[in-house]
Every structure is written in structure tokens, then in C-alpha cells.
Write a structure and sequence with these properties.
mainly alpha, single chain, 60 residues, 2 helices
């Protein structure tokens, strides 16, 4: 008799192998995510781009 994968792995398992979830889905209300760093990063990139452009415009 050829054993299937289910038979092979089932011999060590308990009768009810399903475990309760350690991190249940749904949960309660959570705090909103704040994306403050995005605005800071955008401001830095714009400043880096504008500084050479202002230098070229003011000192041709």
C-alpha cells in the first residue's frame, strides 16, 4: 500500500490540529497612522532642487 502525503504527516498530529490564532483578525479600533516624515522628505528634496536653481538664476 502506498501512503499519501496526508497519511504520512497525519500519524504525529493530534486529533484536532487546528490552533487558535495568536493574532486574531478584526481587533478593536486603532490609532490613525501619521505620515509626517513624508512631508519632511518632500521639503528636503524640493530644497535641494531649488537651491542650485536659485543660485543659477541669481548669479548667471
Amino acid at each position: 500500500m502506498v501512503s499519501t502525503d496526508t497519511d504520512f504527516y497525519a500519524h504525529d498530529r493530534p486529533e484536532h490540529p487546528i490552533l487558535p490564532e495568536d493574532r486574531p483578525r478584526g481587533g478593536g479600533p486603532t490609532a490613525p497612522v501619521v505620515h509626517g516624515r513624508l512631508w519632511i522628505a518632500c521639503a528636503i528634496v524640493i530644497a535641494i532642487i531649488m537651491l542650485p536653481l536659485a543660485g543659477i538664476a541669481l548669479f548667471p
